[in-house]
Amino acid sequence: MLKRFTHFIGSRTGMAALALVAFTFSCQENAETPQLGLEDQVLKYQNGDIIPGKFIVVMKPEGLNFRRTDKYEDVQANMRMAATNLFAKYRISEQNVGAVYGTVLDGFAASLNADQYELVKNDPAVLYIEPDRVVSIAQGKPGGGGGSTVQETPWGITRVGGSVNYTGTNVAWVIDTGIDLTHPDLNVSTANGFTAFTSGKDANLNDGNGHGSHVAGTIAARNNTIGVIGVAANAPVVPIKVLDSRGSGSNSGVIAGVDWVGSKGKTGDVANMSLGGGVSSALDAAVLNASNKGIKFVIAAGNSAANANNYSPARVNGANIWTISASDINDNFASFSNFGNPPIDYCAPGVSIKSTWKGGAYNTISGTSMAAPHAAGVLLLGAARTNGFVKNDKDSSPDPIISR
């Protein structure tokens, strides 16, 4: 098991090589396309590892002289100009500027050598720089293929109070590997979808891994005659693709997705983050700032059987942030689940969870990645309640089991 690996599914094995790429925005014809300069490059690092030469630069708000607007594209253009101007002071090419953020974090991703790093770090307009790191999930076993002729209610849905046909106007943002866009059991909304990849097979919103589709199904699989049913059945799920088909990405890419959700989301929406890795102040700040806009962030505690305070974004606390540990069908604390109060708020079913999968399929897998979407579905329906406490918690404060 990778000790720095926060939210993986299935077996507790190590991750192999991953592709880290640049960022683009789907369904936005006039959106800017920031470049990170890592396209088609395979970097053989594991989750939580520092990506050499790659950084996240966070600016001081008072050091930015552009006018704020509500339009995402304007903020992006202004932040890119600010980053380019900063680099011009030190004769650093504007091509070294990667993804830019301006809604939930004032900053940008960058490629820097050691000398450039020292120059930028000491600039009076810069608050701090941190190294970019790998974020990964472990691959689950392949889906079973095809659909199901009889609808069933997975045990986890029953444990959190059963399913309700969703009639609200909010959406669930699935910050993950994408979603199977044509799955007959999912109500996928692509109008505000986002993908963090500009080339190759992941330069779209579709899920090439299965993990994001599984998360989406637990939140909101349709109440029809096939497959499974979600907590908030039929609710719209929006793909925010920040991990590739191998379940790999970077903190800078995840922040780009959170920045997008912070711009496009509205009060009462839910954002599920069944991902994570090593500590990142920038990622933590982005999630906290987005949640302050009224978007409910639900975060998997992690699967390292360790203290969740040592992982981002699991460790973030806020009024609209919930970190979720995992339990089995007998309400026992999952052996792999991270622990700690704070940041953990609730426990939810996370062992042997059946849900939707890529290719119109279904799959049964385990992880705090599976627990978080149970809570996301509950919170999309409204305020959460509890129903008992998890048994055999690894800390001195048993987590309450979330229920609608």
TrEMBL record:
List the InterPro entries hit by this protein, alphabetically.
Peptidase_S8/S53_dom, Peptidase_S8/S53_dom_sf, Peptidase_S8_Asp-AS, Peptidase_S8_His-AS, Peptidase_S8_Ser-AS, Peptidase_S8_subtilisin-like, Peptidase_S8_subtilisin-rel, S8pro/Inhibitor_I9
Signal peptide range in chain numbering: 1-31
Q: Which residues form the active site?
A: D176 (charge relay system), H211 (charge relay system), S369 (charge relay system)
Peptidase S8/S53 domain sequence ranges: 174-381
Pfam families xrefs: Inhibitor_I9, Peptidase_S8
Q: Which UniProt keywords apply?
A: Hydrolase, Protease, Serine protease, Signal
Note the superkingdom of the native organism. Bacteria
Inhibitor I9 domain mapped to chain residues? 54-137
Instruction: Return the similarity comment.
Output: Belongs to the peptidase S8 family.
Q: What PANTHER family does the entry give?
A: CEREVISIN-RELATED, PEPTIDASE S8
The entry's protein name is: S8 family serine peptidase
